[in-house]
Amino acid sequence: MIQPPNAILTNITNITQDGTEISTSTQMMKMTNHQFTGVFPEETIHAPLEPSRGISNTCHVGRISSEDAAGLIQTAYNHNSLLQPISNAKAKLIITPGLLVISSDASRGASRKTGLASILRWIEPNQEDDDDGGCDDTIQVVCRRTLAQRDVTYCEIAAIALGLKTALAYIQEQPESPSSPLWRVLIVSDCMAALDFYETKPVGMMSTVCDNSRAYRRALTRLSSKVVDISLTKVRSTHGADDGFLDHAAADFISRTTRSVANSQNREETHGKVPQLTHADLSWLAQSESPRKKETSTTKQQALQKSAQRATRCKQRIHEEFDILIP
What we know:
The chain is α/β, with parallel strands linked by helices. Helix content is 33%, strand content 20%. The termini are close together.
């Protein structure tokens, strides 16, 4: 069971209908020798918040490359100094958007249960350095158990919906004022079919077999009415010797644990300040769409040993940074 338990998470089924797909264009500076050199948006972002805040009601939803996604996170860590600010004409304010990274995963075991997990990383705009000279992110960890579907893709879709609905609830709970932070959203998943589902309208077999498909799409629509834009990107999962992208690795481990624990004990949120993602995390994300490196020949026993060592390292880091103990 995940420790420590905190606030109870509400059910994810009554969530919302189709959204508009408008691709976002953001020009990123490329990595050189895996070093991030910065990100420069190509044009002003149009924020979709309520008219009372004097902001345009247009939200861009679309796919971006994994490399651009890593650059987007890196830019947010540069105290947002490179992000194009948004003008709130009514309040006569310039608002710099924060970045919410939602990493989701699902795990289906031998039983008829599936574990869903989403890690929400809130990178606030204009963070101030702490005593150690760095900044911390705010983390939410949400998970639940559900019945297994015929296709694990539907479970991956549900895991993303869990993160979307949690993000919406958090934003709606915050006091509203002209100076309230705006948010850009980055959805990270290793399931291309799940990303396709949220990027395009569900058609054919997907919309008929997955009973909750419309409800899952509503989660995206409702969140899109509260944020600046929503981007979707692919992350490569790791099961070998490489540690991978921390938040997705955490979602993977937590979803496995969740499938064996009843929701009465498992439906929880964990909030806390955690260190920023590392250069290694962003490098892994940036290279997720690149051809896999050929691994040196190893025996099956050596491969299993390396995988076990990776799992131990990841669980230790999750414990140290998220204060979550995974057995």
